[in-house]
């Protein structure tokens, strides 16, 4: 097959895939079309959602929304979910964070990263308050595979470092720079913050555990693939 013909076929495939990806009631494009996802990865490999343990084998998961141990007290991910994702550049940056922390005797524990858009709609139905959950009209960094909720653990025993509050604590004590927490907790938060910022992440001022990768020029779109779908896509693409 001649090169010009290959190019024409690829462009036709990309065009058809793009047309197949519709906007929702909020006029928001939510990517749930496998062909479209494959087409954008073919054009830009940094768009790929990467399973974190595939590049950071000793990372620890405590995926709270696959349990009832979260602020909603409801299971929002399938029970037993054992995978989570970030876009390629964010995942590589997190790997560098893990390597730097490892040299200090520390590791990373993940509470949440990629979140299907369908789950954000469930959050909104349950909570309906933008102080705590993203509105479905715009989606969130988690829906785009750019946000990660995490803490630091000791590698020798797996214990979490003291951070002043637990995960998803919505008091002012969870804010960066908060008073009323111990000096040890302040130091530990600073270790996490300085390492994450050094490798390109941005903090969320009211949640010490929440960091996000920049979305310059709205490059990354909202995604709505289940974890099982992403696992299958990862095997086949």
Describe this structure in words.
By secondary structure, the chain is α/β, with parallel strands linked by helices. It has one domain: Muramoyl-pentapeptide Carboxypeptidase, domain 2 (2-Layer Sandwich), CATH 3.30.1380. Helices cover 33% and strands 15% of the residues. It contains six helices and nine strands; from the N terminus they run αβαβββαβαβαβββα. The strands form three sheets. A five-stranded mixed sheet has the order 3-5-6-8-7, covered by helices on one side. Strand 7 and strand 8 form a beta hairpin. About 6% of the residues have low confidence.
User: What value does the Rg take, in angstroms?
Assistant: 19 Å
For the secondary structure, the number of strands is 9
State the distance separating the first and last CA atoms: 23 Å
Q: Return the average pLDDT rounded to an integer.
A: 91
The CATH class is: Alpha Beta
Class based on secondary structure composition and strand pairing: alpha/beta
Q: What fraction strand?
A: 15-25%
Number of helices: 6
Strands of the biggest beta sheet: in what spatial order? Answer: 3-5-6-8-7
